Amino acid sequence: ATEKTYEHLRVSTPKAGVGFIELNRPKALNALCTPLILELNQALRDFQAAKSIGAIVLTGSEKAFAAGADIKEMQNLTFSDAYGKDFIESWSDLVTFLKKPLITAVNGYALGGGCELAMMGDIIYAGPKATFGQPEIKLGVIPGAGGSQRLTKAIGKARAMETILTGDVISAKQAGDWGLVAKVFETPEECVDGALATAAKIASYSQIAVKAAKEVVNKSQDLGIREGVEYERRVFHGLFGSQDQKIGMTAFAAKDKPKWTNQ
Ligand code: CO8
Fold first, then answer.
1. Which of 71, 81, 91 to mutate to test the pocket of ligand 1 (most atoms within 8 A of CB)?
2. What would the CATH number be for the domain defined by 9-203?
3. Which residues make up the CATH 3.90.226.10 domain(s) of the chain?
4. Ligand 1 centroid – CA 64 distance (Å)
5. Is residue 85 in contact with ligand 1, taking CB distance under 6 Å?
6. Which runs of consecutive H residues, i.e. helices, occur in 120-187?
7. So what's the ipTM on this one?
8. pTM of the entire structure?
9. Is 172 in the pocket of ligand 1 (CB under 6 A)?
């Protein structure tokens, strides 16, 4: 059910529990046109709904993760079109509906909307030539899919301000040093394989615990420390109502491997 045919994506399940999406619009360096975004939303929704899938990897090509929103599509957009039709709002769907972990494996250009899409990942991995940036300023606009907020949270105000105001790019090494990405790999293949291996590891755990873990870490982005810790504790307490808590702890005590029920 998850392996539909798409025009701008390749979708597969290369490892147990892992959904894999490759952006595939090579002629435009994976520029994010509306049809591509609609397909991406659909593929993510399918993986979100698939019981067997525990984590998702999103990548592009070796040359480009995505070179941004489709500039040619935006060129003649008017304010009333953009505001009236909530241009880009369907993008926020990507993060708000997705409860399963998403790893973005970035090789090549991740610019503008491409950088924003990469940052929608719960974990970002980078290949050696990954190039991040928010060059919208050069087009007479600003980031519009969360870049000013997520980049600032990720690397701090001074660096984000410099990046967004100059349009200068961030290299893979710099992204690693600044903590924008979790890991920098030596080759593009290792970056994608590393993301798939991490996704497989996450998918081997109880989906209910993984979902709760993602939820509480994300809360840290919105809540103060006191409310955040209280929120975490409520969710932690709630997991004692799950079967998998009993299964995991019983298996540990018996020196067995747990067989999760995702209940
Ligand atoms: N949109 C549309 N087409 C693009 C885009 C893009 N963002 N990026 C590249 N392409 C196309 C080029 O037009 C070219 O097409 P053609 O062969 O028909 O001329 C093809 O892809 C190959 O590109 P280049 O020849 O330019 O390749 P180079 O290797 O010389 O350069 C670069 C690569 C540096 C990445 C260059 O293509 C570039 O600067 N691209 C634009 C980067 C950019 O400005 N991105 C930000 C876009 S604005 C944005 O994302 C706003 C986000 C708002 C939220 C999202 C809303 C959907």
1. 71
2. 3.90.226.10
3. 9-203
4. 10
5. no
6. 147-155, 157-166, 172-177
7. 0.96
8. 0.96
9. no
